[in-house]
Write a structure and sequence with these properties.
The chain is 67% helix and 0% strand. It is an all-alpha fold. It starts with a helix and ends with a helix. The mean pLDDT is 90.
Length: 138
């Protein structure tokens, strides 16, 4: 039986993979980011292969996310969306959809995504951005 944390990490990884694949091209920067995240989440090669082959099997609506979880995951999604230097419309839509599914207010999601992207571009640290999102009650 997998822990809730492991399920949460797999769900987040599935979202990142979906955004990476949204434009039909998985470039080196996106692939490197996915491998980095899979290592941080202790996702084994077998689990990684299973997620890639069956990306919809890990969806679990009962996973509980804290504000910190939502902020970190939304940050990662926006970072993935912008890794190749251009966020296409499908990537933006997925990012917004996943954000709302995580519990981010649908009225605010677009503003949060833009703010995160702007702060990443200006060189602000992940920790500072996540902290700011938590303070805003993401």
């Amino acid at each position: 039986m997998e822990t809730e944390n492991k399920l949460k990490n797999k769900e987040h990884f599935r979202h990142l993979l979906s955004i990476a694949m949204a434009d039909g091209i998985l470039d080196k920067a996106e692939l490197d980011f996915l491998f980095k995240i899979s290592n941080q989440f202790y996702i084994t090669r077998e689990e990684l292969s299973e997620i890639i082959q069956k990306p919809n099997e890990f969806h679990d609506e009962n996973i509980k996310l804290t504000q910190q979880d939502r902020a970190e995951q939304l940050y990662d999604l926006v970072e993935m969306m912008n890794l190749d230097g251009e966020a296409d419309q499908r990537e933006k839509e997925l990012c917004m959809s996943f954000g709302v599914a995580m519990g981010v207010d649908s009225e605010k999601i677009e503003d949060f995504i833009k703010a995160i992207a702007d702060k990443i571009e200006s060189g602000e640290s992940k920790e500072a951005i996540v902290s700011s999102l938590v303070e805003k009650g993401i």
